[in-house]
Amino acid sequence: MSTFVMPSLGADMKSAVLMEWKVKEGDPVTKGMVIAEVETSKGVIEIEVFEDGIIEKLLVEEETDCTVGTPLALIRSKDEAVNTKPTTQDLPKSPSEILKEPEHEIMLAAERIKASPAARKRAQELGIELASLGADKEAIHLAQIESEITAKIPQPSGMRQAIAKAMSRSNAEIPHYYLSASVNMTPALHWLEEYNKNRSIQDRILPTALLIRAVVYVLKEVPELNGFWKDDGLQMSMQINPGIAIALRKEGLITPAILEAGQMDLDATMQALGDLITRTRSGKLRNTEITQQTITITNLGDLGVENVYGVIYPPQVALVGFGRIMDAPWAQGDTLCVRKVMQATLAGDHRATDGRTGGKFLDRLNQILQTPEELL
Amino acid sequence: MSEEQIKESIINQIVLIAPDIDPDEILPDKNIQRSLEIDSFDFLKMLTALDVELGVAVPEADYGQVDTLNHMIAYFAKRIVS
Q1: What is the nearest CA distance from A13 to chain B, expressed in angstroms?
Q2: Where in the sequence is the domain holding B22, given as residue range(s)?
Q3: B60, B62, B66, B79: best to mutate for the A interface, most A CBs within 10 A
Q4: Number of domains in chain B
Q5: Is B60 helix (H, G, I), strand (E, B) or coil?
Q6: B60–A197: do the CB atoms touch at under 8 Å?
Q7: CA–CA separation, A67 vs A9, rounded Å?
Q8: pLDDT by residue (tens digit) across A42-97?
Q9: Architecture in CATH of A175-375
Q10: Domain A2-99: which CATH class?
């Protein structure tokens, strides 16, 4: 029998609200299956189970605030004898009975508005009337309260504080070095346009996906930039899980990972990117996606930015930045012409690597973007 | 389909992607992506949805012709008729 506990979803997280169980007692589960949804400052996150087995017992009710490490469920491995069955039957309450607990019902009836405990607490702190949010069918989540704040009071949200903490730690601990290179994107964009011509609109590949694919491709040759700084040493990662900086419309950003991007071709990378952006904006990420990034990629080209001087997200050791692709004068041999030019930058952790490694990375990245067909 | 209906379809898609935008604030001659902060992924999603709804797929080469609300209405109006 093993205990499934509230996982840590980032160094800054102390607790989270268990919003919904996706399984019930007696359900078989397999490694990687989503068994619950929890609400954190990063939105609603789906929590995966890390082993095969059977849910023996759910230990906490839905909408409970749990600190990291709180036991949430007991999982029995399939080999274990089923002699624990009487225990299950002896349990004082079945999950459905728990949900119908009178106290719970009275509370909901009195307030008449469904809201998570975290949302209710925050609303009380801020003096926001839950009724003013006008949600009568769906339960009010913490994120909605936070968005109310940004609308009304200039007070830092949970996400703002999480970013503040991580970035302060980064600038205090990591001796950054910065490199940049001008990349002629004309060949890559031409190639992509031809490639997209024969495809339906929903199968089109965005330049961002090509750039992510290029970074992953080159990281296989320069693995020193893919990993973590831990225990005074560089730990390179076998998996390549690029965290993609995705801005949220309300405020802030999240950098969830495309997991195992090293195994993906260009189409799969685009599909994974689209899926990731959609789920980030609808608040449906998985715990592995927000905790297992091995490098960060920031593309601010859409905003017209030319150079990205990034702040590394610890314990990662590098951040790749892409600026706007713009028409610029470009010398080719003896002639001056106009090309689509983009600045690629690298922020590196100088404890882990030197400029030589970073330089090699940008050089290879530039090269591979001149022969984009290799990135298929 | 009238230009008014096309406009409504486009605005519906914008609001789906960016629920914080007040339809009255959309300036017809401003760059949609930049003025409303719609990134390239959301813009592609919008064109995909409009393809399903209006039956016109905008090729990448024509992106310059659908940069503002007015341009987009004109682009779709021309192609839906023909």
Answers
A1: 28
A2: 3-81
A3: B60
A4: 1
A5: helix
A6: yes
A7: 11
A8: 778 899 988 899 999 999 999 999 988 899 999 998 777 555 444 444 444 444 44
A9: 2-Layer Sandwich (3.30)
A10: mainly beta
